[in-house]
Design goal:
Layout: H1 2-36, E1 41-45, H2 52-63, E2 66-67, E3 70-71, E4 74-79, E5 85-86, E6 92-93, E7 97-98, E8 107-110, H3 116-119, H4 122-132, E9 137-140, H5 145-150, E10 158-159, H6 163-167, E11 179-180, E12 186-189, E13 192-195, H7 200-212, H8 215-224, H9 246-252, E14 258-266, E15 271-279, H10 283-296, E16 300-306, E17 309-314
Parallel strand pairs: 1-4, 1-8, 4-7, 8-9, 9-13, 10-11
Antiparallel strand pairs: 2-3, 5-6, 12-13, 14-15, 16-17
Helix pairs in contact: 2-7, 7-8
Length: about 325
């Protein structure tokens, strides 16, 4: 009996060795085929004031995309001119190419940030439009969607963008019949991906990996980044109740006041924001500025000042009160 067990064990081990040999041969063939095939090219547009996470987040995710044991994409940075640029916050970028010498990409990523410059630059808008006519997929991050819209790429499509643009549906003003969605982290519409703000660009990039390679490749890329990817979860800022007084909250953090945010939290139905203001021109002046600001926000009505309290009736665009 003991001899039979030993023989069985030896046979099993031999079988495993044979299987491993076959598997190794398959991977080798895959690697050789990968060398012969050109890697798909991804161009990431940058400009002065571009938001760091808008381009760096997708860049990071896409570098982890692998197929047949090798990096799948060739990624490079493109700007209107090949000169050092400053991102939002001051981080410097040196583009790999300018519009004149950049290789034609298979995919284009258009981040957001301080988009006033590129939005009013016909050269940038025309380049986005021309290149996107040749790409498999064009993707925007955050308010980069406004650049796609101005290029006509979002006409008659569903799209999303940064929280303020999605909540107010202001993006719709930059194109024709744009269906602006406020409750999605990323939206596919034909060969266009638009993502919500900032970190949502990572989700869009992972979705691109899933579409172009496999779900497993996207999951592995997210794991390599230690990023908790939940494509089915619709966490976006534009869904939160904070959006009902976003301009007022921003005003209270402006240079007109000195203080700190003590608490900011809630969900889709309620939000509490506590600010400790340490320097202001009197409490009455502060209350008046808050009252006037709330009057400019959508949904607030019948605002009444009672001592140190403001009372109001509120119904937002989606019927929440």
């Amino acid at each position: 009996m003991l001899t039979r067990i030993q023989n069985f064990t030896h046979t099993l081990a031999l079988s495993m060795m044979i299987s491993c040999a076959v598997l190794m041969q398959f991977v080798t063939l895959g690697a050789e085929a990968q060398v012969k095939a050109a890697r798909p090219k991804i161009a990431i547009l940058v400009f002065s004031g571009v938001e760091v996470i808008d381009y760096a987040g997708p860049f990071e995710a896409l570098t982890y995309a692998r197929k047949d044991g090798a990096s799948y994409f060739e990624i490079y940075i493109v700007a209107a001119k090949k000169e050092t640029l400053k991102s939002a916050g001051g981080l410097k970028i040196i583009p790999d190419y300018d519009f004149g010498d950049a290789p034609t990409p298979d995919y284009l990523i258009v981040p957001g940030g301080n988009i006033g410059g590129p939005l009013n630059n016909d050269g940038v808008i025309n380049w986005i439009k021309t290149i996107s006519a040749k790409t498999r997929v064009t993707m925007s991050v955050c308010n980069g969607a406004y650049l796609l819209a101005k290029a006509g790429l979002l006409d008659n499509k569903k799209a999303t963008t940064t929280a303020s643009g999605a909540y107010s549906k202001g993006l719709a003003n930059y194109g024709k019949n744009i269906d602006v969605l406020y409750d999605q982290r990323f939206v596919w519409s034909e060969n266009i991906i638009t993502t919500a703000g900032l970190s949502s660009g990572i989700d869009g990039a992972l979705s691109l990996i899933e579409r172009e390679i496999s779900k497993g490749a996207a999951q592995d890329a997210a794991l390599s980044m230690e990023y908790h990817w939940q494509p089915e979860v619709k966490f976006v800022r534009s869904r939160l109740a904070e959006m009902t007084f976003i301009a007022t909250a921003s005003m209270l953090k402006s240079k007109d006041f000195k203080g700190n945010v003590v608490k900011s939290g809630g969900d889709e139905n309620q939000w509490e924001k506590v600010l400790r203001v340490t320097e202001v021109q009197g409490l009455d002046a502060l209350m008046t500025k808050v009252l006037n600001s709330l009057k400019q926000e959508d949904g607030w009505a019948s605002i009444v000042k009672k001592g140190n309290t403001l009372e109001s009736q509120f119904v937002d665009k989606r019927g929440r009160s």
